[in-house]
From TrEMBL:
Name of this chain's protein: Ubiquitin-like domain-containing protein
SUPFAM superfamilies associated with the record: Ubiquitin-like (SSF54236)
Bias (Polar residues): 14-25
Domain Ubiquitin-like: residue ranges: 57-126
Gene Ontology MF, one: cadherin binding
Cross-referenced InterPro entries: UBFD1, UBFD1_C, Ubiquitin-like_dom, Ubiquitin-like_domsf
Organism: Magallana gigas
C-alpha cells in the first residue's frame, strides 16, 4: 500500500516530463511571430525605395556673360527657362531679359538634352541688368525732333522713302551680295555676312561674335565692335520688287534717328539677326 504513492509520483513525474518533451517547439508562437515580423520588415525595406530610382543625369558646362565665365552643373532634363532662373542668380540679369545662345537662340521650352549640351560646352547669355536699363541716356530735344520726322516718314515703305530710295537708285544691287530667299527662315551662317552696303554706299560686313556679345560692323575704313545689349531695336523691310532682300536698321541709341542702315540683307537671315540681337523682348 505504501508503494502506490511512490508509483503515482513517478508516474506524475513521468507524465510531466513527457508533457514537457512533447510540448510543440513553437506552434505559431514567438519564433513564428519574429520570423513573420522579420519577413515583413524585409518586405517593407524592399518596398521603401527612393522616388527617383534612376539618378538624375547632369552635365557640366560654362555660362559666359559679359566676358565672365561661370561653372555650372545642371540636370539635362531641365528646360532653358529653368536655366535662365539659375543664371539670374549668377549674373543679376532678369530671366525675362535673357537670351540663351547655344548653336543659335535656345527656346525656353527646350531641355539641355534637346540642345545636346555636352560636358565643357559654353553657353552664351545675352542681356542687361535692370540697372543697365535704367541708366539709358534720356533723348535730347533734337533727337526727339528727328524721331518725329522719322515716324512721319514711316507711313510709306522704307524702300520708297526719299532717303532710302536715293541710296538704292544710286548704288543699285551689289554684284557680290549673297543669294536672297524670301519666305524662308534660316539660322545665321557660320561665316560673316558680306556684300551689303550702308547709307553712304560703303561695303558692310556683319560678324556676330556671340562669345563676347558683340556685332562687328566691318567697312573698308574700320570695324565697329558694338555690344548687342546696346542695340535698342532692329527694324527691317523688304525692298520693293526685290523682296528676297531687306533694308535693315540697327538702332544704336535711344531714338530712331540713331539707326544704322544696311541695304540688301538676304531675307532668309533677317529673323535670325533680330533673334540674335534682341531675342523675343525689347526695352523700348
Amino acid at each position: 500500500m505504501e508503494t502506490e504513492p511512490v508509483q503515482t509520483e513517478e508516474k506524475s513525474d513521468s507524465v510531466t516530463v513527457t508533457q514537457e518533451s512533447q510540448q510543440p517547439s513553437d506552434p505559431g508562437g514567438e519564433n513564428n511571430k519574429n520570423k513573420s515580423n522579420s519577413e515583413e520588415n524585409h518586405t517593407n525595406s524592399d518596398s521603401i525605395k527612393p522616388s527617383d530610382q534612376d539618378p538624375v543625369e547632369t552635365v557640366e558646362f560654362k555660362i559666359v556673360y559679359n566676358k565672365q565665365k561661370y561653372d555650372v552643373t545642371f540636370p539635362t532634363n531641365e528646360t532653358v527657362a529653368k536655366l535662365k532662373a539659375h543664371v539670374q542668380t549668377l549674373t543679376g540679369v532678369p530671366s525675362a531679359m535673357q537670351k540663351i545662345m547655344f548653336k543659335g537662340l535656345a527656346k525656353d521650352e527646350s531641355t539641355l538634352k534637346d540642345l545636346k549640351v555636352t560636358k565643357g560646352a559654353k553657353i552664351m547669355v545675352v542681356g542687361s541688368t535692370l540697372n543697365d536699363v535704367l541708366s539709358v541716356t534720356k533723348p535730347s530735344p533734337q533727337e526727339l525732333q528727328e524721331t518725329a520726322k522719322a515716324t512721319a516718314a514711316a507711313k510709306e515703305p522704307l524702300s520708297q522713302q526719299k532717303e532710302h530710295k536715293r541710296v538704292l537708285d544710286k548704288h543699285g544691287k551689289p554684284d557680290d551680295v549673297p543669294v536672297g530667299i524670301k519666305n524662308v527662315k534660316e539660322p545665321l551662317p557660320h561665316m560673316p555676312l558680306s556684300g551689303m552696303y550702308n547709307k553712304s554706299g560703303g561695303k558692310v560686313r556683319l560678324t556676330f561674335k556671340l562669345e563676347v556679345d558683340q556685332i562687328w560692323l566691318g567697312t573698308k575704313e574700320r570695324t565697329e565692335k558694338i555690344p548687342m545689349n546696346s542695340i535698342k531695336a532692329v527694324v527691317s523691310e523688304a525692298i520693293k520688287d526685290h523682296e528676297e532682300y531687306h533694308i535693315l536698321g540697327l538702332q544704336l541709341g535711344p531714338t530712331e534717328a540713331s539707326r544704322y542702315w544696311i541695304y540688301w540683307v538676304p531675307a532668309q537671315y533677317v529673323d535670325a539677326i533680330k533673334d540674335t540681337v534682341l531675342g523675343k523682348w525689347q526695352y523700348f
